[in-house]
Amino acid sequence: MIELTPIFNAMLGAEIPFEKFSKDTRVTFFTGAGISAESGIPTFRSTGGLWSKYDPVKLASPEGFNENPQLVLDWYAWRRDAIRLADPNPAHLSITKFQKLFHDSAVITQNVDSLHSRAGNNSVLELHGNIFRERCNNCGEENGLNSDERTKIRYCHCGGMLRPDVVWFGETLENQKLEQAFELTGACQIFFSLGTSTQVYPAAQLPFYAKEHGAYTIEINTERTPFSNHTDLFIKDAAGHALPNLYEEFYAAVS
Ligand code: BJW
Ligand code: ZN
Q1: pLDDT tens digits, residue range 39-49?
Q2: Among 90, 96, 153, 207, fewest CB within 10 Å belongs to which?
Q3: Ligand 1, atom nearest to 91 Cα
Q4: How far apart are alpha carbons 23 and 94 in whole angstroms?
Q5: How far is the CA of 179 from the centre of ligand 1 (A)?
Q6: Which of 92, 128, 230, 241 is catalytic?
Q7: Does the global pTM surpass 0.85?
Q8: Cβ pair 16, 216 in contact under 8 A
Q9: Which pLDDT belongs to residue 2?
Q10: Which ligand has an atom closest to residue 135 CA?
Q11: Among 69, 59, 71, 58, which Cα is nearest to 160's?
Q12: What is the rounded distance in angstroms from the CA atom of residue 112 to the CA atom of residue 192?
């Protein structure tokens, strides 16, 4: 494993086996809250992150929602407002450029903020849902993107309460999405792990699965994670700084 710090950014690509890659190389980007941090959206587990101020059991679990749905709806309304004010940052925008270079590529995100799509990324798989959608807590029926009536407790025609369409602790991820995520991970030749603490399962398995299936793995994070000792290249830096530089290196070597 090679570790690079920002000071080496000028020669980031020095360690990458570019000769193995071409425009047909399959590339998968796996992202977490850290990629949106430079857009001003707080992460969960970093110092000052959401879980240092708010209790995940009360706000991001089915038990918390059943106990106090209004508290949960208010918290999600507050987060949606903050996300609406945010814009995609250079890391999201670099992925759009990478996807023009490597046409066979996809984004698997744990984020619920839509910033990948807003940046023009394509083939985006939202593993933990989307904060702008809602669904019924009972029958699961999606209620689409709609207005800010969502701060009030409302009910589905089946009698179930409407809730944000996100995956809370103790809930299973959508099977089809998870299978697709493992397929994209197992089949790619370059796997980027960007701004995730690699602590929340089953998503956290993906970087390890990529490595086991022969992908060249590049992790970019401001801190080390459980994957850092396993990745081919660890870049200790902000994604919005390292990824645009890395794109230039790939562009020069591959296009
Ligand atoms: C930067 C940066 C910059 C900062 N540039 N980098 C014991 C009890 C109960 C459950 C479990 C248990 N043990 C294991 C489980 C399973 C549980 C789990 O994994 N828990 C662990 C925490 C221990 N998982 C689940 O419950 C999942 N379901 C499941 O497993 O079903 C089967 C099952 C059923 C019943 C029982 C047990 C299993 C579901 C997980 C759902 C996660 N939901 C959330 C909320 C989503 C909705 C919302 O947004 O409101 O998803 S929690 C939160 O964590 C969110 C994220 O998607 C997810 C991952 O976090 P992420 O993205 O990695 O963010 P951070 O903050 O952790 O990290 C940010 C990183 O960025 C840091 O490393 C920084 O250094 C870095 N960074 N700035 C680059 N500029
Ligand atoms: Zn319903």
Answers
A1: 999 999 988 89
A2: 153
A3: 5
A4: 16
A5: 18
A6: 128
A7: yes
A8: yes
A9: 72
A10: 2
A11: 69
A12: 19
Q: Is 1 helix (H, G, I), strand (E, B) or coil?
A: coil
74 Cα: distance to centroid of ligand 2 (angstroms) = 21
For position 151, what pLDDT does the model report? 78
Protein residues placing their CB within 5 Å of the ion ligand 2: 136, 138-139, 141, 156, 158, 160
Least confident segment among 37-41, 96-100, 143-147, 224-228: 143-147
Q: Whose CA is nearest to atom 22 of ligand 1?
A: 200
- The 8-class DSSP code of residue 238 comes to -
| 72 has pLDDT over 70 | yes
Residues 210 and 185: beta-carbon distance below 8 Å:
yes
Residue nearest to atom 20 of ligand 1 (CA): 200
- The set of protein residues with a Cβ atom below 6 angstroms from ligand 1 is 32-34, 37-38, 43-46, 49, 60, 110, 112, 128, 166-172, 195-197, 199-202, 220-223, 225, 238-240
| Alpha-carbon span 41 to 35, nearest angstrom | 9
3-state secondary structure at position 217: strand
CB 202 within 8 A of CB 174: no
> Which ligand approaches the C-alpha of residue 113 most closely?
1
pLDDT value, residue 255: 81
Residue 128 annotated as catalytic: yes
The per-residue pLDDT for range 85-113, each reduced to its tens digit, is 999 999 999 999 999 999 999 999 999 99
In the chain, what are the domains?
Answer: 2-41+87-128+173-254 (3.40.50.1220), 56-85+134-166 (3.30.1600.10)
